[in-house]
Amino acid sequence: MNVSPGARAEPPIRLPGTILSAAAVAAFWTAAAWAGAEAAAPAQSPAARTLADVLAAAGPTDWRALDPDHTLYLELDSGRIVIELAPQFAPEHAANILRLARQGYYDGLAIVRSQDNFVVQWGDPGPGRSLGDARATLPPEFTVPLDARLPFTRLPDPDGYAPEVGFSGGFPAARDPMLGRAWLAHCYAMVGAGRDNAVDSGNGAELYVVIGHAPRQLDRNIALVGRVVQGMERLATLPRGSGSLGFYEQPAQHVPIRRVRVAADVPAAEHTRLEVLRTDTATFDALVEARRNRRDEWYKVPAGYIDLCNVPIPVRTP
How far is CA 59 from CA 33, 56, 168, 290, 291, in A? Predict the structure, then answer.
């Protein structure tokens, strides 16, 4: 068992919340749906718009549908988790994970680790399950060459872990122009391939998802393969493991995985239809500014700064 890592207000939109008192929450939701209420507020200058203003003004082209060929449905007893793969950053890992899913490798495996403020991990609790046609070792896709064809929306603020950070195709990413390399960042909900000490030992048979404060020290040390776009609450709230590194000590504590399917292989009637806000538009630039300088009524002092892992990527049901 690998133990690494060491524009419309109508559709529901998933966003991180604000810390409010219970009375404030009740008053907030009683007044009106937040997006509609913000859209009806007096006009503000573009620099002073709230996140709700930005989303209310977003048009159809500001959203994109998930690619079913690179989307996984992980089914637990508690419900479905939707994972978007990132083949542009980890092509061989993505291909191997798709191969494993189509072979039914993950079906009947389990979540075996839940480490507080860190990760949830799943894999073969045995071990012993055959990888079938999937590869046992893969090259360490910790970084990729910096390529002008790789989209990148740079954030305006400095980062302690990389010369430049931003978003690439909806994923939090970093790059170093001097080294000519780019990589994904360990933000909340990002999914990676567990590995042993050997850099080629992470083949996607064991996957983890970040459930706590962003462990950015892992960047460039392990292959990030995608992110959870829906269902994080089913993972982040799992009981914490009491064993070393948060592993469950008793088999009865394991959380069974019913099955993992590639969305493209699922009948259309069973699809989870989602759209993700694009990160290469003026709307996204406005979203970043709205989060850098919060204008919501609750905030009294805008921060004037945004951390890579604090930029929300809204998801909606079209």
Answer: 19, 8, 20, 17, 19
Ranges of each domain in the chain: 1-318
Instruction: Return the CATH class of domain 1-318.
Output: mainly beta
* pLDDT in the model for residue 1: 52
Reading the block at residue 275, the tokens are 């759209």
**Buried b or exposed e, range 69-80, using 16+ CB within 10 angstroms:** ebbbbbbbeeee
Q: What is the pLDDT of residue 275?
A: 98
Q: Measured between alpha carbons, how far is 235 from 287 in angstroms, rounded to an integer?
A: 27
> What angle (nearest 5°) sits at the alpha carbon of residue 203, between those of residues 201 and 205?
115
Chain Cα centroid distance, residue 277:
13
pLDDT on residue 237 = 97
Q: What is the pLDDT of residue 5?
A: 63
Predicted pLDDT of residue 126: 87
Ranges of the chain whose pLDDT falls below 70? 1-47
Task: Enter the tokens of residue 100.
Answer: 């494993």
